[in-house]
Structure formats: structure tokens, C-alpha cells
């Protein structure tokens, strides 16, 4: 049996696309006859507080589903203050260095990026000619930060670019979630070994049951992080509710603002359901006509994993984020595409969608397409040959 270590910032019991993606990778490798271990911080995402079950400890090691998980200390924070965020990343980096000093590491290590500083810590301290370092790039930083307005092109940005290049240079193999990510990396290092590793979900698809669509309004749903990048609060204020009822699941920085908006504007047809487990969410989503996948600004390299997850659920999509995600939606005929941040075009498109279009036949077709093209097991099998 081969050994593999995964180093990540997010892992269950934390929720969200990042933790789900890494968990499925770890579980998939374990099923492919790998002995898998994971290093991750003490659970704290997305609230920025250590979960109750892990408070008061500096390190927790457990074995779950035959995977050994080392949870290390971190200064937990989700503050918008850049200094506090930097301290949080550095604290985890210091914990990693301490771990590296006292533990023997396997010859195959998969490092999640971003955060860039955490990835840099790994690429710098555990590089070894006999060790294969695999860098799993899910977003392009610092480019994404620049597009989101979090960075300016100054000395700090140039330093982050140097760190980014160092990470790519030291990686023996780079996994990228999009064609844009791989194109960016090979533009810097043309001979770098790369692998397109989409964020395909790993769960049993539900059987779709035909339901009447005799309600007047389209029941549209958003499920996920209520963060700045998604822009759900602004979306709530810009939507035309004549044709839709908007349902929201999730938590994040905009949660209170959205709740206050609903409380002070009862005429807005919005229902906030809070945060529920992933399995509960999958069941809930089957009762909606349409889902919206928004990004406030187009982020180069980003392809939301929701596309692949909702495909397996047979849920029609309205993509409102720009970039490569548009290509995936159009290519596989999963729904509709509207230019990012164009709310006039969004409302126009919503007014044109008839409730009768969102029928059982369309949902079945979406699910069949997803099962054929977004196959986690097939992708993992090809990946294992590259490791």
C-alpha cells in the first residue's frame, strides 16, 4: 500500500466546497489502495472560531474512515482586517513547521493552494529530491484577490506573485480545477506537468420524481457561502420578484445584512432557511425549479463546484458569474448564462424562462449529462496513474 499526505486549510467537519473536495480526494485515494493522512487546522470555518469539540487543544489526531487526520492549532479568525488574516495564516504555517520537524512524511504529498503562504511553507520546508510534491490549485492567487479588490498592484502584490511562482516551480505536478488555471501556470512554466482536476462531487445521485409545476412563480434557490464574492445581498436588492420566489441557504459575512433586508422589506419574496447539512441540502434542492450561481465579479480561473454538484441533482442552473463556468454551462446545456453583474440582463432572462421549461424531462437530461461527463471515479482513476 502506498502512502500519501494531504495538507489543506479546510476539511470536515467544516462545510463548504473546499472541505468537500479535499475529503472526497482523500477518501478516493484511500479506496485506490493508498494509506492516506491529512494535516489541517482545528475546525474553524466559516465562523472563524474553533468548533466547541476542539477548543482548548493544540493538536488533535483521529482516524476516520481509515484516514488519519492531524488537526493543528491555528489563530482562528474570519476578520476583514488584513493583519488578523495574515496572523491566522502564519499561525497555521508555524504549526505545520513544528509538525514537519517531529514527524516523518511520506514520499507523496498533496498541498492545497490557496492560501499561498501555507502552500509556500509546505513547498519550501518539505521539498526533497526523493519526495513528489503535488500542488492542488483551486483558485489563482494573487490574481483572484486583485479582481476581487482585496489587493492592489504594490510591493505586497509583487511579493505574492514571487511566492506563487516559487510554489509552481517546486511542484512536481500541478492539479488545476480549470483550463484557465492550467493555462496560467504553463504560461509561466511551459514544461510543468499539469492535470485538469475538476471539482466533481462524489455522492449517489437521487432518483428524480416528477412533480407538478402549477405554481405561478419560479422557485429559485441559492445555496452556499454568503460572502462578498458571491454578492447575495446585492442580488436580493436587484432581483425582480414578479416571476420568482428566492430561497437562500447558507452562512457567511452577509448573513445579517440579508436577514435585516428581509425583516425590513416584507414585500420582497425572499425566504432565508439558514445553514443545513449537505445531505439535507441535497434533499431540499430537489424541490426547487431553478438555482442561481452568482459571482459579483468574474474571477479568472474560477469554475464553481456547484455546477457539477447541481448537475448530478438534475437542477437547472442560471449562471451569473462569467469566465470558464459559462463555457461548461453552455457546452453541456445545463441552463442559462447571464453576464456577471448585469442585473438588467438577469431580470430579463428570468422573465423569459417559463415554469413549464423547468420540467421533469429537462431535469432528467441534466442529470444524465452530469453522470456521463462529471464522473469522479473515472477522473480519480486517471489521476492516480499520474501520481
From TrEMBL:
The keyword Nucleotide-binding belongs to this UniProt entry's keyword annotation: no
Gene3D superfamilies, alphabetized: Glycogen Phosphorylase B (3.40.50.2000)
Taxonomic superkingdom: Bacteria
Domain Glycosyltransferase subfamily 4-like N-terminal: 17-189
Name the record gives this protein: Glycosyltransferase family 4 protein
Transmembrane segment boundaries: 86-103, 109-126
Domain Glycosyl transferase family: 221-368
Coiled-coil annotated residue ranges, if any: none
Keyword terms of this UniProt record: Membrane, Transmembrane, Transmembrane helix
SUPFAM superfamilies found in the cross-reference section: UDP-Glycosyltransferase/glycogen phosphorylase
Pfam families: Glyco_trans_4_4, Glycos_transf_1
The species this protein was found in: Corallibacter vietnamensis
Amino acid at each position: 500500500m502506498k502512502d500519501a499526505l494531504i495538507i489543506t486549510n479546510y476539511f470536515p467537519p467544516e462545510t463548504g466546497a473546499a472541505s468537500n473536495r479535499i475529503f472526497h480526494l482523500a477518501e478516493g485515494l484511500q479506496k485506490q489502495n493508498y494509506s492516506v493522512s491529512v494535516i489541517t487546522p482545528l475546525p474553524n470555518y466559516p465562523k472563524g472560531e474553533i468548533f466547541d469539540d476542539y477548543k482548548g487543544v493544540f493538536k488533535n489526531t483521529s482516524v476516520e474512515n481509515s484516514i488519519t487526520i492531524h488537526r493543528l492549532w491555528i489563530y482562528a479568525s474570519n476578520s476583514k482586517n488584513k493583519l488578523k488574516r495574515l496572523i491566522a495564516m502564519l499561525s497555521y504555517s508555524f504549526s505545520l513547521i513544528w509538525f514537519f520537524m517531529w514527524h516523518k512524511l511520506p514520499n507523496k504529498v498533496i498541498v492545497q493552494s490557496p492560501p499561498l503562504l501555507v502552500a509556500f511553507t509546505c513547498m519550501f520546508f518539505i521539498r526533497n529530491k526523493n519526495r513528489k510534491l503535488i500542488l492542488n490549485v483551486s483558485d489563482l492567487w494573487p490574481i483572484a484577490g486583485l479582481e476581487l479588490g482585496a489587493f492592489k498592484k504594490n510591493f505586497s502584490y509583487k511579493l505574492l506573485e514571487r511566492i506563487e511562482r516559487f510554489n509552481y516551480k517546486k511542484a512536481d505536478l500541478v492539479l488545476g480545477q480549470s483550463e484557465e488555471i492550467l493555462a496560467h501556470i504553463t504560461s509561466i512554466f511551459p514544461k510543468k506537468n499539469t492535470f485538469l482536476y475538476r471539482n466533481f462531487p462524489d455522492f449517489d445521485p437521487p432518483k428524480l420524481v416528477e412533480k407538478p409545476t402549477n405554481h405561478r412563480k419560479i422557485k429559485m434557490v441559492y445555496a452556499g457561502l454568503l460572502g462578498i464574492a458571491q454578492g447575495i445581498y446585492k442580488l436580493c436588492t436587484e432581483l425582480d420578484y414578479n416571476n420568482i420566489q428566492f430561497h437562500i441557504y447558507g452562512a457567511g459575512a452577509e448573513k445579517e445584512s440579508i436577514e435585516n433586508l428581509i425583516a425590513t422589506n416584507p414585500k420582497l419574496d425572499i425566504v432565508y432557511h439558514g445553514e443545513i447539512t449537505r445531505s439535507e441540502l441535497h434533499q431540499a434542492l430537489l424541490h426547487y425549479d431553478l438555482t442561481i450561481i452568482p459571482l459579483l465579479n468574474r474571477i479568472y480561473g474560477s469554475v464553481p463546484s456547484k455546477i457539477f454538484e447541481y448537475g448530478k441533482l438534475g437542477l437547472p442552473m442560471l449562471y451569473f458569474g462569467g469566465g470558464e463556468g459559462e463555457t461548461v454551462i453552455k457546452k453541456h446545456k445545463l441552463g442559462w448564462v447571464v453576464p456577471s453583474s448585469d442585473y438588467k440582463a438577469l431580470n430579463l432572462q428570468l422573465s423569459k424562462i417559463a415554469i413549464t421549461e423547468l420540467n421533469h424531462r429537462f431535469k432528467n437530461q441534466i442529470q444524465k449529462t452530469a453522470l456521463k461527463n462529471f464522473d469522479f471515479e473515472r477522473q480519480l482513476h486517471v489521476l492516480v496513474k499520474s501520481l
